[in-house]
Protein backbone atom coordinates (compact mmCIF):
# COMPACT_ATOMS: atom_id res chain seq x y z
CA UNK A 1 0.00 0.00 0.00
CA UNK A 2 2.75 2.32 0.94
CA UNK A 3 4.50 1.33 -2.23
CA UNK A 4 1.42 2.05 -4.30
CA UNK A 5 0.92 5.47 -2.76
CA UNK A 6 4.56 6.31 -3.24
CA UNK A 7 4.46 5.10 -6.79
CA UNK A 8 1.40 7.26 -7.46
CA UNK A 9 3.14 10.33 -6.03
CA UNK A 10 6.17 9.64 -8.20
CA UNK A 11 3.98 9.26 -11.29
CA UNK A 12 2.34 12.64 -10.59
CA UNK A 13 5.75 14.25 -10.40
CA UNK A 14 6.77 12.56 -13.66
CA UNK A 15 3.64 13.78 -15.46
CA UNK A 16 4.26 17.30 -14.18
CA UNK A 17 7.86 17.14 -15.36
CA UNK A 18 6.87 15.79 -18.79
CA UNK A 19 4.38 18.64 -19.20
CA UNK A 20 7.10 21.16 -18.40
CA UNK A 21 9.50 19.45 -20.79
CA UNK A 22 6.92 19.54 -23.57
CA UNK A 23 6.30 23.24 -23.05
CA UNK A 24 10.08 23.85 -23.14
CA UNK A 25 10.37 21.85 -26.37
CA UNK A 26 7.55 23.80 -27.99
CA UNK A 27 9.15 27.05 -26.84
CA UNK A 28 12.48 25.94 -28.28
CA UNK A 29 10.85 25.01 -31.61
CA UNK A 30 9.09 28.35 -31.71
CA UNK A 31 12.32 30.19 -30.96
CA UNK A 32 14.24 28.16 -33.53
CA UNK A 33 11.50 28.79 -36.04
CA UNK A 34 11.63 32.50 -35.37
CA UNK A 35 15.41 32.39 -35.74
CA UNK A 36 15.11 30.52 -39.04
CA UNK A 37 12.54 33.01 -40.24
CA UNK A 38 14.86 35.88 -39.36
CA UNK A 39 17.77 34.08 -41.01
CA UNK A 40 15.70 33.32 -44.10
CA UNK A 41 14.52 36.89 -44.39
CA UNK A 42 18.11 38.10 -43.86
CA UNK A 43 19.40 35.60 -46.38
CA UNK A 44 16.82 36.66 -48.94
CA UNK A 45 17.72 40.30 -48.35
CA UNK A 46 21.41 39.45 -48.62
CA UNK A 47 20.76 37.51 -51.80
CA UNK A 48 19.01 40.49 -53.32
CA UNK A 49 21.94 42.69 -52.34
CA UNK A 50 24.40 40.14 -53.65
CA UNK A 51 22.46 39.80 -56.89
CA UNK A 52 22.48 43.57 -57.27
CA UNK A 53 26.18 43.69 -56.44
CA UNK A 54 26.85 40.81 -58.80
CA UNK A 55 24.97 42.59 -61.56
CA UNK A 56 26.95 45.75 -60.90
CA UNK A 57 30.21 43.81 -60.67
CA UNK A 58 29.36 41.98 -63.90
CA UNK A 59 28.63 45.26 -65.67
CA UNK A 60 31.85 46.74 -64.29
CA UNK A 61 33.81 43.68 -65.39
CA UNK A 62 32.26 43.90 -68.86
CA UNK A 63 33.13 47.60 -69.03
CA UNK A 64 36.72 46.84 -68.04
CA UNK A 65 36.90 44.11 -70.67
CA UNK A 66 35.58 46.49 -73.32
CA UNK A 67 37.97 49.27 -72.38
CA UNK A 68 40.91 46.85 -72.63
CA UNK A 69 39.66 45.62 -76.00
CA UNK A 70 39.46 49.25 -77.09
CA UNK A 71 42.99 49.88 -75.83
CA UNK A 72 44.40 46.97 -77.84
CA UNK A 73 42.46 48.02 -80.96
CA UNK A 74 43.67 51.63 -80.69
CA UNK A 75 47.26 50.48 -80.09
CA UNK A 76 47.16 48.37 -83.24
CA UNK A 77 45.68 51.25 -85.25
CA UNK A 78 48.29 53.77 -84.09
CA UNK A 79 51.28 51.44 -84.53
CA UNK A 80 52.50 52.57 -87.98
CA UNK A 81 50.74 55.92 -88.41
CA UNK A 82 52.95 58.89 -89.45
CA UNK A 83 53.15 61.85 -87.13
CA UNK A 84 50.99 64.02 -89.37
CA UNK A 85 48.04 61.69 -88.81
CA UNK A 86 48.69 61.36 -85.10
CA UNK A 87 48.55 65.13 -84.78
CA UNK A 88 45.15 65.23 -86.49
CA UNK A 89 43.45 62.46 -84.51
CA UNK A 90 41.14 63.89 -81.81
CA UNK A 91 38.42 61.35 -80.92
CA UNK A 92 36.55 58.35 -82.23
CA UNK A 93 34.59 55.17 -81.58
CA UNK A 94 35.87 51.62 -81.62
CA UNK A 95 33.42 49.08 -83.03
CA UNK A 96 33.08 45.34 -83.27
CA UNK A 97 31.04 44.89 -86.41
CA UNK A 98 28.26 47.47 -86.14
CA UNK A 99 28.37 47.61 -82.34
CA UNK A 100 30.35 50.38 -80.65
CA UNK A 101 32.32 48.79 -77.83
CA UNK A 102 34.41 51.74 -76.63
CA UNK A 103 35.47 55.27 -77.49
CA UNK A 104 38.61 57.37 -77.22
CA UNK A 105 39.48 61.05 -76.82
CA UNK A 106 42.95 62.58 -77.17
CA UNK A 107 44.10 64.22 -73.94
CA UNK A 108 45.54 67.73 -73.98
CA UNK A 109 47.51 67.09 -70.79
CA UNK A 110 50.08 64.60 -71.99
CA UNK A 111 53.57 64.88 -70.46
CA UNK A 112 56.37 65.64 -72.91
CA UNK A 113 59.01 63.01 -73.59
CA UNK A 114 62.57 63.55 -72.40
CA UNK A 115 63.93 61.28 -75.15
CA UNK A 116 65.20 63.14 -78.27
CA UNK A 117 63.00 62.51 -81.30
CA UNK A 118 60.22 60.91 -79.26
CA UNK A 119 56.73 62.44 -79.01
CA UNK A 120 54.04 61.44 -76.51
CA UNK A 121 50.33 61.13 -77.31
CA UNK A 122 47.75 60.38 -74.59
CA UNK A 123 44.25 59.00 -75.12
CA UNK A 124 41.41 58.46 -72.63
CA UNK A 125 39.64 55.24 -73.60
CA UNK A 126 36.14 54.50 -72.22
CA UNK A 127 34.31 51.17 -72.13
CA UNK A 128 30.64 50.96 -71.04
CA UNK A 129 28.29 48.10 -70.10
CA UNK A 130 24.98 48.03 -68.20
CA UNK A 131 25.36 51.54 -66.84
CA UNK A 132 28.90 50.91 -65.63
CA UNK A 133 31.95 52.46 -67.25
CA UNK A 134 35.71 52.04 -67.11
CA UNK A 135 38.25 54.62 -68.28
CA UNK A 136 41.94 54.17 -68.83
CA UNK A 137 44.52 56.70 -69.97
CA UNK A 138 47.01 55.25 -72.43
CA UNK A 139 50.22 57.06 -73.24
CA UNK A 140 51.90 56.24 -76.56
CA UNK A 141 55.45 57.03 -77.61
CA UNK A 142 55.86 57.96 -81.27
CA UNK A 143 59.25 57.42 -82.86
CA UNK A 144 60.38 57.91 -86.44
CA UNK A 145 63.28 55.66 -87.38
CA UNK A 146 65.39 55.97 -90.50
CA UNK A 147 66.32 52.67 -92.12
CA UNK A 148 67.74 51.61 -95.46
CA UNK A 149 65.85 50.26 -98.47
CA UNK A 150 66.84 49.25 -101.99
CA UNK A 151 64.76 50.97 -104.66
CA UNK A 152 63.60 48.54 -107.35
CA UNK A 153 63.21 51.28 -109.98
CA UNK A 154 61.96 54.77 -110.70
CA UNK A 155 58.76 55.78 -108.85
CA UNK A 156 56.16 58.40 -109.73
CA UNK A 157 53.65 57.93 -106.92
CA UNK A 158 51.36 60.72 -108.11
CA UNK A 159 51.57 59.86 -111.81
CA UNK A 160 53.70 60.77 -114.84
CA UNK A 161 52.68 63.11 -117.67
CA UNK A 162 54.84 63.46 -120.80
CA UNK A 163 53.80 66.45 -122.92
CA UNK A 164 54.83 68.48 -125.96
CA UNK A 165 57.54 66.87 -128.07
CA UNK A 166 59.29 65.44 -125.04
CA UNK A 167 60.48 61.85 -125.12
CA UNK A 168 60.95 59.66 -122.07
CA UNK A 169 62.96 56.58 -123.03
CA UNK A 170 65.03 53.82 -121.49
CA UNK A 171 68.74 53.55 -122.13
CA UNK A 172 69.55 51.19 -124.99
CA UNK A 173 70.31 47.67 -123.85
CA UNK A 174 68.97 48.14 -120.32
CA UNK A 175 65.80 46.72 -118.82
CA UNK A 176 64.36 49.83 -117.15
CA UNK A 177 61.21 49.64 -115.01
CA UNK A 178 59.17 52.52 -113.66
CA UNK A 179 56.29 52.42 -111.19
CA UNK A 180 53.43 54.87 -111.69
CA UNK A 181 50.64 55.63 -109.23
CA UNK A 182 47.85 58.18 -109.05
CA UNK A 183 44.65 58.18 -111.08
CA UNK A 184 46.41 56.51 -114.02
CA UNK A 185 48.32 53.91 -112.04
CA UNK A 186 50.43 51.68 -114.24
CA UNK A 187 50.17 54.08 -117.18
CA UNK A 188 51.97 57.11 -118.58
CA UNK A 189 49.76 59.73 -120.23
CA UNK A 190 50.18 62.92 -122.23
CA UNK A 191 48.61 66.25 -121.32
CA UNK A 192 45.31 65.23 -122.95
CA UNK A 193 45.14 62.00 -120.95
CA UNK A 194 46.10 59.73 -123.85
CA UNK A 195 48.02 56.63 -122.76
CA UNK A 196 51.59 56.53 -124.08
CA UNK A 197 53.93 53.65 -124.82
CA UNK A 198 57.50 54.34 -123.75
CA UNK A 199 60.50 53.02 -125.65
CA UNK A 200 62.74 50.76 -123.60
CA UNK A 201 60.73 51.21 -120.40
CA UNK A 202 58.37 48.80 -118.65
CA UNK A 203 55.57 50.57 -116.77
CA UNK A 204 53.98 48.98 -113.71
CA UNK A 205 51.44 50.16 -111.14
CA UNK A 206 52.87 51.64 -107.94
CA UNK A 207 51.36 49.34 -105.30
CA UNK A 208 54.04 49.05 -102.65
CA UNK A 209 54.35 52.53 -101.12
CA UNK A 210 57.56 53.63 -99.45
CA UNK A 211 58.26 56.85 -97.62
CA UNK A 212 61.69 58.28 -98.15
CA UNK A 213 63.22 60.14 -95.21
CA UNK A 214 62.53 63.87 -95.56
CA UNK A 215 65.12 66.64 -95.41
CA UNK A 216 64.06 67.78 -91.95
CA UNK A 217 64.63 64.30 -90.56
CA UNK A 218 68.02 64.05 -92.26
CA UNK A 219 69.31 67.43 -91.08
CA UNK A 220 71.58 66.04 -88.37
CA UNK A 221 73.29 63.73 -90.88
CA UNK A 222 74.50 66.48 -93.23
CA UNK A 223 78.06 67.79 -93.45
CA UNK A 224 77.20 71.42 -94.19
CA UNK A 225 74.02 73.14 -93.06
CA UNK A 226 72.77 76.41 -94.52
CA UNK A 227 70.05 78.10 -92.49
CA UNK A 228 68.55 81.56 -91.85
CA UNK A 229 68.36 83.48 -88.59
CA UNK A 230 65.32 85.46 -87.43
CA UNK A 231 66.41 88.44 -89.53
CA UNK A 232 66.64 86.29 -92.65
CA UNK A 233 70.44 86.42 -92.83
CA UNK A 234 72.23 83.22 -93.72
CA UNK A 235 74.04 81.12 -91.15
CA UNK A 236 76.33 78.22 -92.00
CA UNK A 237 77.40 75.18 -89.99
CA UNK A 238 79.51 72.08 -90.44
CA UNK A 239 78.94 68.67 -88.88
CA UNK A 240 79.96 65.01 -89.15
CA UNK A 241 83.42 65.85 -90.45
CA UNK A 242 86.87 64.47 -89.71
CA UNK A 243 88.79 67.74 -89.81
CA UNK A 244 92.29 66.72 -88.65
CA UNK A 245 94.07 63.59 -87.47
CA UNK A 246 92.54 63.91 -84.02
CA UNK A 247 89.42 66.06 -84.44
CA UNK A 248 85.98 64.85 -85.44
CA UNK A 249 83.03 67.25 -85.44
CA UNK A 250 79.86 65.50 -84.27
CA UNK A 251 77.60 68.49 -83.50
CA UNK A 252 76.72 71.46 -85.73
CA UNK A 253 79.53 74.02 -85.51
CA UNK A 254 79.07 77.52 -86.88
CA UNK A 255 81.48 78.57 -89.64
CA UNK A 256 82.01 81.48 -92.01
CA UNK A 257 79.74 80.85 -94.98
CA UNK A 258 81.85 79.51 -97.84
CA UNK A 259 82.26 81.01 -101.29
CA UNK A 260 79.75 79.51 -103.69
CA UNK A 261 76.84 79.71 -101.24
CA UNK A 262 74.53 82.73 -101.17
CA UNK A 263 70.94 83.76 -100.47
CA UNK A 264 68.80 86.39 -102.22
CA UNK A 265 66.28 88.86 -100.78
CA UNK A 266 63.49 86.32 -101.29
CA UNK A 267 65.25 83.75 -99.13
CA UNK A 268 66.25 81.48 -102.03
CA UNK A 269 69.65 79.82 -101.80
CA UNK A 270 72.21 79.44 -104.60
CA UNK A 271 74.85 76.72 -104.51
CA UNK A 272 77.80 76.48 -106.90
CA UNK A 273 79.72 73.34 -106.04
CA UNK A 274 82.63 74.10 -108.38
CA UNK A 275 83.30 77.27 -106.38
CA UNK A 276 82.46 75.98 -102.90
CA UNK A 277 84.51 72.78 -103.27
CA UNK A 278 82.93 71.09 -100.25
CA UNK A 279 82.87 67.32 -99.85
CA UNK A 280 79.79 65.48 -98.69
CA UNK A 281 76.17 66.31 -97.97
CA UNK A 282 74.74 69.84 -98.26
CA UNK A 283 71.53 70.72 -96.34
CA UNK A 284 69.44 73.80 -97.15
CA UNK A 285 66.60 75.33 -95.16
CA UNK A 286 64.20 76.37 -97.95
CA UNK A 287 64.47 76.55 -101.74
CA UNK A 288 67.83 76.15 -103.46
CA UNK A 289 69.08 76.74 -107.00
CA UNK A 290 71.91 74.45 -108.07
CA UNK A 291 74.32 76.40 -110.27
CA UNK A 292 75.87 73.81 -112.56
CA UNK A 293 79.03 74.53 -114.52
CA UNK A 294 79.99 72.69 -117.71
CA UNK A 295 82.40 69.77 -117.42
CA UNK A 296 85.12 69.34 -116.21
CA UNK A 297 83.77 71.42 -113.31
CA UNK A 298 81.42 68.65 -112.27
CA UNK A 299 79.26 68.69 -109.16
CA UNK A 300 80.00 65.87 -106.69
CA UNK A 301 77.63 66.30 -103.75
CA UNK A 302 74.39 65.28 -102.14
CA UNK A 303 71.91 68.16 -101.83
CA UNK A 304 69.03 67.97 -99.32
CA UNK A 305 66.45 70.78 -99.17
CA UNK A 306 63.30 71.39 -97.15
CA UNK A 307 62.08 73.44 -100.13
CA UNK A 308 62.48 73.01 -103.88
CA UNK A 309 65.62 72.03 -105.80
CA UNK A 310 66.09 73.73 -109.19
CA UNK A 311 68.98 73.34 -111.63
CA UNK A 312 70.48 76.32 -113.46
CA UNK A 313 73.06 75.88 -116.22
CA UNK A 314 75.56 78.72 -115.98
CA UNK A 315 77.43 78.18 -119.27
CA UNK A 316 74.26 77.44 -121.29
CA UNK A 317 75.71 75.34 -124.13
CA UNK A 318 77.84 72.33 -123.20
CA UNK A 319 77.85 69.10 -121.21
CA UNK A 320 76.96 69.17 -117.51
CA UNK A 321 77.64 66.38 -115.05
CA UNK A 322 76.27 66.11 -111.52
CA UNK A 323 77.19 63.13 -109.35
CA UNK A 324 76.06 61.80 -106.02
CA UNK A 325 79.31 60.97 -104.13
CA UNK A 326 78.90 57.19 -104.33
CA UNK A 327 77.94 57.33 -108.01
CA UNK A 328 81.09 59.33 -108.75
CA UNK A 329 83.05 56.30 -107.59
CA UNK A 330 80.75 53.77 -109.27
CA UNK A 331 81.43 55.38 -112.67
CA UNK A 332 85.22 55.60 -112.21
CA UNK A 333 87.80 53.81 -114.35
CA UNK A 334 91.31 52.57 -113.66
CA UNK A 335 92.91 55.90 -114.54
CA UNK A 336 90.80 58.11 -112.28
CA UNK A 337 89.59 55.96 -109.38
CA UNK A 338 92.31 57.23 -107.03
CA UNK A 339 91.66 60.89 -107.84
CA UNK A 340 87.91 60.41 -107.49
CA UNK A 341 88.34 58.81 -104.08
CA UNK A 342 90.39 61.86 -103.02
CA UNK A 343 87.49 64.09 -104.09
CA UNK A 344 84.80 62.10 -102.27
CA UNK A 345 86.91 61.38 -99.17
CA UNK A 346 89.67 64.03 -99.02
CA UNK A 347 92.52 63.88 -96.53
CA UNK A 348 90.95 66.66 -94.43
CA UNK A 349 87.31 67.54 -93.79
CA UNK A 350 86.02 64.22 -95.04
CA UNK A 351 82.46 63.00 -94.27
CA UNK A 352 82.41 60.47 -91.46
CA UNK A 353 79.02 59.09 -92.59
CA UNK A 354 80.53 57.15 -95.49
CA UNK A 355 84.34 57.60 -95.46
CA UNK A 356 86.73 55.38 -93.56
CA UNK A 357 89.97 56.65 -92.06
CA UNK A 358 92.84 55.74 -94.39
CA UNK A 359 96.31 57.12 -95.15
CA UNK A 360 98.28 57.94 -98.29
CA UNK A 361 100.06 54.59 -98.20
CA UNK A 362 96.77 52.70 -98.38
CA UNK A 363 95.43 55.03 -101.08
CA UNK A 364 98.56 54.60 -103.23
CA UNK A 365 97.93 50.86 -103.37
CA UNK A 366 94.87 51.55 -105.53
CA UNK A 367 95.93 50.76 -109.09
CA UNK A 368 92.58 49.77 -110.57
CA UNK A 369 88.83 49.76 -110.02
CA UNK A 370 89.08 46.04 -109.34
CA UNK A 371 91.51 46.62 -106.46
CA UNK A 372 89.27 49.34 -105.06
CA UNK A 373 86.19 47.10 -105.26
CA UNK A 374 88.00 44.23 -103.54
CA UNK A 375 89.24 46.52 -100.75
CA UNK A 376 86.37 48.99 -100.60
CA UNK A 377 85.75 48.44 -96.88
CA UNK A 378 89.18 50.00 -96.19
CA UNK A 379 88.09 53.27 -97.78
CA UNK A 380 84.29 53.42 -97.49
CA UNK A 381 81.71 52.45 -94.92
CA UNK A 382 78.86 50.16 -95.96
CA UNK A 383 76.77 52.34 -98.28
CA UNK A 384 73.90 49.88 -98.06
CA UNK A 385 73.35 51.06 -94.48
CA UNK A 386 72.10 54.38 -93.14
CA UNK A 387 73.54 57.04 -92.96
CA UNK A 388 76.26 56.00 -95.44
CA UNK A 389 73.57 55.43 -98.08
CA UNK A 390 72.94 59.19 -98.20
CA UNK A 391 75.91 59.22 -100.58
CA UNK A 392 73.62 57.55 -103.17
CA UNK A 393 71.35 60.63 -103.32
CA UNK A 394 71.98 63.45 -105.79
CA UNK A 395 69.00 65.72 -104.99
CA UNK A 396 66.36 65.36 -102.29
CA UNK A 397 63.50 67.84 -101.91
CA UNK A 398 60.49 68.03 -99.62
CA UNK A 399 58.44 70.02 -102.14
CA UNK A 400 59.57 69.94 -105.79
CA UNK A 401 62.50 69.36 -108.08
CA UNK A 402 62.73 71.26 -111.36
CA UNK A 403 65.35 70.17 -113.91
CA UNK A 404 65.76 72.37 -116.98
CA UNK A 405 68.06 71.59 -119.90
CA UNK A 406 68.57 74.49 -122.29
CA UNK A 407 69.15 74.26 -126.04
CA UNK A 408 72.42 72.64 -127.14
CA UNK A 409 73.02 71.18 -123.70
CA UNK A 410 73.37 67.68 -122.35
CA UNK A 411 72.82 67.14 -118.66
CA UNK A 412 74.02 63.89 -117.08
CA UNK A 413 72.64 63.22 -113.61
CA UNK A 414 74.20 60.33 -111.67
CA UNK A 415 72.39 59.25 -108.52
CA UNK A 416 68.93 59.13 -107.05
CA UNK A 417 66.68 62.19 -107.38
CA UNK A 418 64.07 62.13 -104.65
CA UNK A 419 60.87 64.02 -103.89
CA UNK A 420 59.66 63.17 -100.38
CA UNK A 421 56.31 63.58 -98.65
CA UNK A 422 57.82 66.24 -96.44
CA UNK A 423 57.95 66.50 -92.66
CA UNK A 424 54.98 64.71 -91.08
CA UNK A 425 54.30 62.64 -94.17
CA UNK A 426 51.59 64.93 -95.56
CA UNK A 427 53.46 66.92 -98.25
CA UNK A 428 52.83 67.14 -101.98
CA UNK A 429 56.26 66.68 -103.55
CA UNK A 430 56.35 66.68 -107.36
CA UNK A 431 58.82 66.90 -110.22
CA UNK A 432 59.22 68.94 -113.39
CA UNK A 433 61.65 68.15 -116.18
CA UNK A 434 61.61 70.76 -118.93
CA UNK A 435 63.68 72.32 -121.69
CA UNK A 436 65.00 71.73 -125.18
CA UNK A 437 68.21 69.84 -124.42
CA UNK A 438 68.93 66.24 -123.49
CA UNK A 439 68.83 64.88 -119.96
CA UNK A 440 70.31 61.52 -119.01
CA UNK A 441 69.44 60.15 -115.59
CA UNK A 442 71.63 57.30 -114.40
CA UNK A 443 69.78 56.34 -111.26
CA UNK A 444 66.25 56.46 -109.95
CA UNK A 445 63.70 59.26 -109.92
CA UNK A 446 61.75 58.63 -106.72
CA UNK A 447 58.78 60.95 -106.30
CA UNK A 448 56.66 59.74 -103.38
CA UNK A 449 54.37 62.76 -103.07
CA UNK A 450 50.79 62.91 -104.32
CA UNK A 451 51.26 65.29 -107.28
CA UNK A 452 52.13 64.34 -110.85
CA UNK A 453 55.61 64.57 -112.33
CA UNK A 454 55.69 66.40 -115.65
CA UNK A 455 58.10 66.06 -118.57
CA UNK A 456 57.58 68.95 -121.00
CA UNK A 457 59.41 70.48 -123.96
CA UNK A 458 61.33 69.52 -127.07
CA UNK A 459 63.72 67.20 -125.32
CA UNK A 460 64.71 63.63 -124.62
CA UNK A 461 64.97 62.22 -121.12
CA UNK A 462 66.88 58.95 -121.04
CA UNK A 463 66.52 56.83 -117.95
CA UNK A 464 69.23 54.29 -117.25
CA UNK A 465 69.65 51.75 -114.48
CA UNK A 466 72.22 52.65 -111.90
CA UNK A 467 74.71 50.23 -110.43
CA UNK A 468 72.95 48.02 -107.86
CA UNK A 469 75.22 49.40 -105.14
CA UNK A 470 73.79 52.86 -105.80
CA UNK A 471 70.10 52.02 -105.36
CA UNK A 472 69.99 52.03 -101.57
CA UNK A 473 68.31 55.09 -100.00
CA UNK A 474 67.03 56.05 -96.52
CA UNK A 475 63.35 55.42 -95.78
CA UNK A 476 61.15 56.13 -92.79
CA UNK A 477 59.72 53.47 -90.53
CA UNK A 478 57.10 54.73 -88.09
CA UNK A 479 56.51 53.15 -84.72
CA UNK A 480 53.95 54.18 -82.10
CA UNK A 481 54.14 51.97 -79.05
CA UNK A 482 52.25 51.96 -75.78
CA UNK A 483 54.35 53.38 -72.98
CA UNK A 484 51.94 53.23 -70.02
CA UNK A 485 48.28 52.74 -69.05
CA UNK A 486 46.35 53.53 -65.87
CA UNK A 487 42.74 53.50 -64.74
CA UNK A 488 41.19 56.91 -64.26
Would you give an account of this structure?
- The structure is a single chain.
- The chain is an alpha/beta fold and 488 residues long.
- It has 2 domains: 75-145 and 480-487, no CATH class; 152-470, no CATH class.
- It contains 8 helices and 35 strands.
- The chain has an 11-stranded mixed sheet.
- The model is unreliable at 1-9 and 25-55 (pLDDT under 50).
Helix content: 10-25%
Low-confidence stretches: 1-9, 25-55
Q: Judging from the principal axes of the Cα atoms, what is the shape?
A: globular
Structural class: alpha/beta
Cα separation of the termini: 95 Å
- Number of structural domains: 2
Beta-strand portion reads 35-45%
* Major beta-sheet overview: 11 strands, mixed
Summary of the model, kept short:
The chain is built from eight helices and 35 strands. The chain has 488 residues and is an alpha/beta fold. The strands form six sheets. Strands 11-8-5-32-29-26-22-19-12-13-16 form an eleven-stranded mixed β-sheet.
Which descriptors apply to this entry?
single chain, 488 residues, alpha/beta, eleven-stranded mixed β-sheet, eight-stranded mixed β-sheet, 8 helices, disordered N terminus
How are the elements arranged and paired?
Blueprint lengths: L1 H77 L4 H6 L2 E6 L2 E8 L11 E12 L2 E19 L3 E3 L3 E3 L4 E4 L5 E5 L7 E2 L5 E2 L4 E5 L9 H4 L5 E5 L5 E5 L2 E2 L5 E2 L3 E3 L5 E3 L5 E3 L1 H4 L4 E4 L3 E5 L6 E2 L1 E4 L3 E5 L4 E6 L1 H6 L6 H8 L5 E2 L8 H5 L4 H6 L18 E5 L2 E6 L3 E6 L1 E4 L10 E6 L2 E5 L2 E3 L5 E5 L2 E5 L7 E16 L1
Parallel strand pairs: 5-8, 5-32, 6-33, 7-34, 8-11, 12-19, 18-20, 19-22, 20-23, 21-24, 22-26, 23-27, 24-28, 26-29, 27-30, 28-31, 29-32, 30-33, 31-34
Antiparallel strand pairs: 1-2, 2-3, 3-4, 4-35, 9-10, 12-13, 13-16, 14-15, 14-25, 17-18
Amino acid sequence: MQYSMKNKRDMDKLVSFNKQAGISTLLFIVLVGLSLTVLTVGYMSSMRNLQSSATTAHAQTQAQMKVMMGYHALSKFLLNQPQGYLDKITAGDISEGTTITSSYVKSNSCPASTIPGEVHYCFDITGQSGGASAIIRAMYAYQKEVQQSTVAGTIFAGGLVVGGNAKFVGETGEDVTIFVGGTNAGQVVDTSGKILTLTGITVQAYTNPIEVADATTLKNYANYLFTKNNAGAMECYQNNLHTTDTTVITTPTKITCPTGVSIDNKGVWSFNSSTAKLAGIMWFDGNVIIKLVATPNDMINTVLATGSVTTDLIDKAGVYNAYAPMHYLLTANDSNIKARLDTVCPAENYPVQFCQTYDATQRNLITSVAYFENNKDKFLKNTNLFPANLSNILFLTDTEFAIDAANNTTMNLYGNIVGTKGAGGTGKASGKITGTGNINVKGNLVVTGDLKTEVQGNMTVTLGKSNTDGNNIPVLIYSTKSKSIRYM
